[in-house]
Specification:
The chain is 31% helix and 19% strand. Strands 1-2-3-4-5-6-7-13 form an eight-stranded parallel barrel, surrounded by four helices. Helix 8 runs parallel beside helix 11 and helix 11 runs parallel beside helix 12. 49% of the residues are buried. It is an enzyme of class 3 (hydrolase). This is chitinase.
């Protein structure tokens, strides 16, 4: 496979690109208006799903920041939504989706919350309906197969109760093995009938369930994610590409790349020159019985303190990393890591340059309706990745207008 190339843009340019920022309770940092002027939606994360099944939830529906406080910090017209759920939050959704009565009850409570808080809508973060969530070793996917049908039914109840004036979106998985469980040609049309747009989580595409190194938010992997939804019937203009304002690293057995025939990009052909550090075996990263993390992977946002044991290695990754033109991602293999003589460190993250490349290669070529990032405060204090995302939005929209005028 040759380097990723730009295909003729097909994006519709009549509507401005959505530029959505999740604002998290972990990093509730909001920059000034010079950096947020292109943001169209802010999504407050999270409210737990289980509270919407309670008979008497807190009538004030508290958030780490109120909708009014957030709205005052962004340009007029910015939509403020509330995200419900999140990674590992599955039980509340499963309870809500079980039958029509429970779905109606859940939807009623969500609608009340929207009215009380003054939000413009909700983002449903039931990230893994049908299985493969955090508990997939304890609760096998076969016991969750029913959720694939119940998921669009829950969204339909929410849409009915929220009405056409409130926004309804969903954060959805990016890895094909996860997508395939509940997002199929049989279900996606029903899902799209209820939501305004989907936030496709085109990050964490490498995680502790994988056996070889690859980009966690690369271009080739992102395109594969989006193609899955497009082929299942989701309109491109209602899909948003996900960006990660954080870094991931994985411990790799020393000399694993050198001793493995897989030490090449998973997107390259047999005739291509190997790309050291990509496609290298990692060894087990989770407990085979429980699925628990074995401590061989880590991550941090740009607002976090870099863990002491990997701080020096991260500086090397920033200075010496490589952009893979085949798979479309920035990475670095530290084979001289001082932290453990038995392991190397594999780094994978987006630089501002990698973010810029995704607009022509993905957003424009696929005709997507927008982008989003997890999360706004995670990029503090420098906000270099936020700026790159804003610049990409502006350039794509200007390029789209120019094409329309031809």
């Amino acid at each position: 496979m040759t380097a990723l190339s730009i295909v003729p843009a097909v994006m519709a340019t009549q509507e401005p690109l959505r530029n959505i920022m999740y604002l998290t309770g972990q990093h509730p940092v909001i920059p000034d208006l010079t950096l947020t002027s292109t943001i169209t939606h802010v999504v407050l994360a999270f409210m737990p799903s289980g509270i919407f099944n309670e008979e008497e939830p807190d009538p004030l529906w508290p958030l780490f920041l109120s909708v009014a406080e957030v709205r005052a910090r962004f340009r007029p017209g910015t939509k403020v939504m509330v995200a419900i759920g999140g990674w590992g939050d599955t039980e509340g959704f499963a309870t809500a989706a079980r039958d029509n009565s429970s779905r109606q009850f859940f939807a009623e409570r969500v609608a009340v919350m929207v009215e009380v808080t003054g939000a413009d809508g909700v983002d449903i973060d039931w990230e893994y309906p049908g299985g493969n969530g955090e508990d997939y070793k304890q609760v096998p996917n076969s016991q969750k197969a029913w959720e694939a049908t119940a998921y669009p039914q829950l969204l339909a109840c929410l849409r009915c109760r929220l009405g056409p004036s409130n926004l309804l979106s969903a954060a959805v998985p990016g890895i094909p093995r996860d997508i395939a469980l509940a997002f199929t040609p049989a279900t996606v049309p029903d899902i799209m009938a209820s939501v305004d747009f989907l936030n496709v989580m085109t990050y964490d595409l490498m995680n502790r369930r994988d056996a070889a190194t690859r980009h966690h938010t690369g271009v080739a992997g992102s395109l594969a994610s989006l193609d899955f939804y497009l082929k299942a019937g989701a309109p491109a203009a209602r899909l948003n590409l996900g960006f990660a304002f954080y870094v991931k690293y994985f411990r790799v057995p020393s000399d694993a790349c050198a001793s493995s025939s897989n030490g090449t990009s998973t997107t390259s052909t047999a005739a291509a020159d190997p790309l050291p550090g990509l496609g290298c075996p990692t060894g087990p990263m989770e407990d085979p019985e429980t699925g628990a993390d074995l401590g061989r992977t880590g991550g941090f946002s740009y607002h976090d303190r870099v863990p002491d044991d990997v701080a020096e290695s991260f500086l090397k990754a920033l200075a010496q990393g490589t952009y893979d033109e085949r798979g479309g991602g920035y990475y670095y293999l530290d084979d001289d890591w001082d932290g453990d003589n038995d392991d190397d460190l594999f780094w994978t993250f987006d630089t501002p340059d990698a973010i810029a490349r995704k607009f022509p290669l993905i957003v424009e070529s696929k005709g997507l309706g927008g982008v989003f990032a997890w999360g706004l405060g995670e990029d503090a204090p420098e906000f270099a990745h936020l700026q790159a995302l804003a610049d990409g939005v502006v350039r794509s929209q200007a390029g789209g207008r120019a094409r329309d005028e031809l």
